[in-house]
# Entry
Amino acid sequence: MSERRFDFEIVVVGAGPAGLAAACMAAENGKRVAVVDDTPWLGGQIWRGQQARPLVPQAQKWIERFRRSGATLLDRTSVIAAPRAGVLLAEHANGPREIHWDKLILATGARELFLPFPGWTLPGILGPGGLQSLAKSGWPVSGQRVVVAGSGPLLLAVADGLKKLGAKIVSIAEQAQWGRVAGFGATLLAHPAKLAQAARIKWRLLGVPYRCGVWPVKAEGDTQIRQVTLTDGQRSWTEACDLLACGFGLAPNVELPLALGCELLEGFVWVDAWQATSAAHVYCAGEPTGIGGADCALVEGQIAGHTASEHKAEAQALFQERSRWHEFRSALARAFALRAELKSLATADTLVCRCEDVSLGRMKQFAGWRDAKLQSRCGMGACQGRVCGAAAKVIFGWGMESVRPPVLPARIESLISVAEKESAEGGKASTGSECRAPALREYEN
# Structure
């Protein structure tokens, strides 16, 4: 293999729990395996920083297993396109990389879902996962007053982590009603480890107000956020804060599966019992198939790794465990389903697309996502629609209609390399919809 070309039997995109599990199974089954990820660490966002501080036994176990497996890690490598079947085009600091595969496992994960409301673009407002990542990387939060709002179990975990780092948690606002949250808590009886973890977090957050059926409607400040207005639908009040960690769950990264021709079902990648997608020789595991957390991602990754390496008996032995975690995933989705009021948080002048400064009022003029992009450049900025596109889906019901390369910002050098390769082989460089463009797992940090 040259510095620019890499050949593997199985390539895994994403080094989170699903990707690590898939790579370990395939490599241990004797296949030549590579994991491609744009970060310099293993474990994805959920296990970020575990190499330096292995505080989570589960993370330590899988990271060490991966290092013993013999699989290759192509880190700091961002996939930007798939110019032809069996080939990924990626960027690295040393230049473009061409990664050839026989089987492909997509473990692209998910990103935080943001819903716009007046003031949501003020400095000091971040996603819960984004703020947690910054804090883990050394960004100072000690002494800062933090309101955590939005939806999902991540809110409690982030509040707990920030409190450990010295932040003052003012309150936690969960948009789901108390009855649904309590019902989800009851399902944890079938998962003792998760129940114990939740109990420990609640104990450490004793004294911090945790309100259900509450959501943010406005943020105010000058050079940064100073206060946030919360409501329960009946009354509203303001809480002073230095930081607002606000996110309404997770949205799956489905750009790569879509670009490769994988079918979606209710916004997630459709897979069969073997984690195979509708695209030939392409498998998918983890959050793109449904938001279920690390445990669900791990078992799906193992099944995908065994199947791709032609060890179906071992994969089938994991079906029952996967079924158990799928039940958990379904309970999670029901409990934290977004309330209808969140669709109308933004006012006419509230920005929905932060990159291109497109307001809700302007977006209402358009019939769909494609129309909005063509006439307002909405979704054509640095995030490539990952923030505003997901918000538009919730607010308007718009779906992504197409994926075009490069999905991530790319150097001209990398794109030219495709044309040079095709020219040298006497072919024609793929353009438009012929060029398949994946998107790597990322949290909008």
